[in-house]
User: Fold this.
Amino acid sequence: MHDARALIEMGAEAVRRLARRGYSLDLSELESLQSRRNQNIRSADELRAESKRVASEVQQTAKQGGDISKLKERARELKDEIRDIEAGQVQVEEQLRDLLLSIPNLPDDAAPDGDSEDFAVEVRRVGTPPAFPFEPKDHVDLGEGMGILDFARATKLSGPRFAVSRGVGAALERALATLFLDLHTRRHGYIEHAVPYLVTRKTMTGTGQLPKFEEDLFKTGVADRELFLIPTAEVPLTNLYADEIIPPAALPLALTAHTPCFRSEAGSYGRDTRGLIRQHQFAKVEIVQMVDPADADPTLETMVGHAEACLKELGLAYRVVKLAAGDTGFSAQLTYDIEVWIPSQNTYREISSISNFGTFQARRANIRTRGEDGKPKLVATLNGSGLPVGRTLAALLEQGQQQDGSIVLPESLVPYLGFRRISADGTPEA
Assistant:
């Protein structure tokens, strides 16, 4: 969310930057609403001052035995005028807030031009994609053939875009989540949290999922209580500090959580309907940081490294790309995607997005700290996937597959699993 005054002061620069992400800012509408708001505030203040003066005159005139009928009539008129002004103010404030909530974050000039993944700029590649002396299978055929993934029964339970893992598959998911949490808490300094999976509309609005992306959210309710299923742990983790002032000494705050994530994928139009790549429910370890705005840029680079560490620990080939301005998420200023190699598709696919939101989310959620002068100021928020369990599992199965149908797993998982290989029939092998 933006400060209306800041956007107006930026003027053409705000229009230019938002145009890079395909958003047309109507400055005249924004200026009109802001002007009406300010005029209403001034008019209401003037009327209240007059009302106070008239009330004083009524008392003085009454004490002196004078006629107060006209003064009392004026007092009633002022009361009605103030009520009308305040009603109009509420309406203008709502219109201004609705407009500001719909305006995406200003993209960082470091983001390349473009409006799709085709314009992403590759930063680096790490690891060598495996070369197979056979036609590699995709993770669906591998998992179902081994009996460790079951998509048909998941569809029977919940419809398409759900999965059931069993046996070694379920153990792998648990091992991956624990490995990621151990890396982030023991090596990277994050504090693990267990958070609610159902949150309020205000909470969703704080991180930018609402009002724009309501069609992508699952929601439920009992009686008049409305709750949304979280699309990512970013939502509860960031909003833990909504409407709070964080002591400067407590920054940076580094938080992590392993949660299920729920997404309707309303805008995906049939993409990746097969397998674990794009599901309605999936597990993910999220990393979130809150920092002084001056520290946001280097923190973004650090967090990319934290997500990369998970892939390096697993020995998976991947690359890092910087997203184009027009392909950057609604709340983000700058985003790096980490893409893991998927052999069956012969390409890299996104497995983590790490974003700097600047003060955009903090303004919406009212998360502040104090500056050197002791006055409250907004923090900067950042988050990323570190990592999603399902997509990582898919990459492990595909990159680790052998000609005999078995899967070789990375050494780093052995302490969590007790075995290094999955046989073609889905049983563990030392």
